[in-house]
Amino acid sequence: MICPYCGKQMSEAYVQSAQQIYLNRGSKPRFNPAGDLSSKSLSRFSFTKAPFVKSYYCEDCAKIIIDLNEEKTREKGLRRRFSHR
């Protein structure tokens, strides 16, 4: 992905956490963001892996971009792969 700020190539990276990763629009982060109905989960819950979301990182600009459409496509692929078992 090309950085929209400087035009250089961005590196593929992963934002990882010990708990699910949420996007809270317009509200301050809280201890339990899952309790907020306006929160959007960006990662999948798993008992065996730490939650993560694929991202792109520009070292020059210190910016991280998460493509939410790419995450939806990944989720559909995982559901399809595990639904046939």
Summarize the structure in words:
The protein has 85 residues and is an alpha+beta fold. The chain has one domain. The protein is 19% helix and 24% strand. It contains 1 helix and 5 strands; from the N terminus they run E-E-E-E-E-H. The protein has a 3-stranded antiparallel β-sheet with strand order 1-4-5, with no helix packed on it. Strand 4 and strand 5 form a beta hairpin. The protein starts with 10 loop residues before the first strand and ends with a helix.
Furnish the topology, listing elements before pairings.
Elements: E1 11-16, E2 22-23, E3 40-41, E4 52-58, E5 63-65, H1 68-83
Antiparallel strand pairs: 1-4, 2-3, 4-5
Order of helices and strands: EEEEEH
Biggest sheet strand line-up: 1-4-5
Round the Cα radius of gyration to an integer and report it.
Answer: 15 Å
The count of β-strands is 5
Strand proportion, as a percent range, falls in 15-25%
Q: Flag low-confidence runs.
A: none
Strand count, sense and barrel status of the largest sheet are: 3 strands, antiparallel
Give the tally of structural domains. Answer: 1
Distance between the termini: 34 Å
- Portion in helices: 10-25%
Inertia-based shape? globular
* Average of per-residue pLDDT values: 78
Structural class: alpha+beta
Query: How many DSSP H or I helices?
Result: 1
